[in-house]
Prior knowledge:
The complex is a heterodimer of chains A (about 190) and B (about 220).
Chain A: H1 8-15, H2 25-40, H3 49-60, H4 63-72, H5 86-100, E1 110-118, E2 125-129, E3 139-140, E4 142-144, E5 149-157, E6 160-167, E7 171-173, E8 180-182, E9 188-193
Antiparallel strand pairs in A: 1-5, 2-3, 2-6, 4-5, 6-7, 6-9, 8-9
Helix pairs in contact in A: 1-2
Chain B: H1 2-14, H2 19-24, H3 30-45, H4 51-62, H5 67-90, H6 97-109, H7 113-120, H8 126-141, H9 146-159, H10 163-178, H11 183-200
Amino acid sequence: MSEHEFHPLVKQLLDGDITLADLPPALRAEGDEALRLLAAVDRSPVQLPAVSRRVMRAVASRPARSVWRVVVKPRELRLRFRPWLLAPALAIAAALLVFLRTPTAAPASLVTVRFVLVAPDAREVSLAGTFNQWDAHATPLIRSGPTGVWTATLTLPAGQHQYAFVVDGVRWVADPGAPAVNDGFGRRNSVLTL
Amino acid sequence: MIIALLTLSLLGMQQRGSPIAARLAGRVPPDVAALVEELGTAASTRGLPVDPLIQKAIEGSAKGVPAERVAAALRLVVAQLGTAAAALQDAGVVSDTLVIAAGGFAVTAGLSGHDITALARTGASVTALTVGLRVAGTLAAMGVPSAENIGLISTKLRSGQPTGDLLLVPAHVQAEIARGVTPAQAAAGLERAAAAQARHGPPPGHPTHPPHPPTPPHP
Lengths: 194, 219
């Protein structure tokens, strides 16, 4: 396809800057042809229904934007001082302060403790106690080599903890290396005071 | 309108679920949860801690204990906490829930209300008393008889030593037992040493307090 380059004056004609009469006679035929070609171009709007639908759907699905416009729309505010509302407002503020103020507990110091159980025949051993809501699966011990020594190292808050080892998921065993108390269910809980 | 909104929000905050139910949700059967709620509410009105009840209920369920047995254990915990609170009150101690819980543990371990009162009458701060009760309970669990136990912990509390020193007592007793003495002898020996130190100060070359934080006792 060859390209036809119009004379600069003809381009001005097409841009509407000048009229056909303003062209020199030698260029009038070219200008006339250019106008004829321009008139032949289909200027009806291009319809892209799928695109239009997508765009309109996207716009419709953004109601928050209009809500946001309402919220941020500049408006005039008038503030009036009403002395009789001051007392209830202060009372509410005081109540909120008392109600919302949560007691800030002193940060508990942490202590690292190593738990050890010798259980050569165990397939799995875990640790359950007051520090992990007695969850028998939360704190598994790791077997150290073929000797059957199971260990876990935990960092616990200072205070008192009760615990037991859970062997193979079913057998609750008190720590033989720690003092123990009756658990109230016929077994023993080991005690750790940090 | 603002006041109305604030009031509504306050009411909404007050009507949030109870903390007991929230902690037990999904951990214990509904009947046990209901019992803990009932016992816990009653305990709270008496100034008793609720946490030991929640812990015992969760423990019972985790161990697969039947509900009726968990219920019996819960009632026992309430009774032990009540004994501790009464013993502290007898000593004129303005107690908080932590010290009552520590006293409850001491009762669980075998100490009596009289033992708790004796410790509370040492004049120790509530914080030191809390640690003292925990340690006394631990010693009881180690087999130290009440007389030697209370003698040792009372001496330690009266000396005003830091609570870190108290926490070392079970390890010291354990070390003495490992040397071949009985728990009673171990505690009595440590009490004599503590009393002498209180009278004459620490031995030459030994600082009053350890230069480093105490190492944690190995369980």
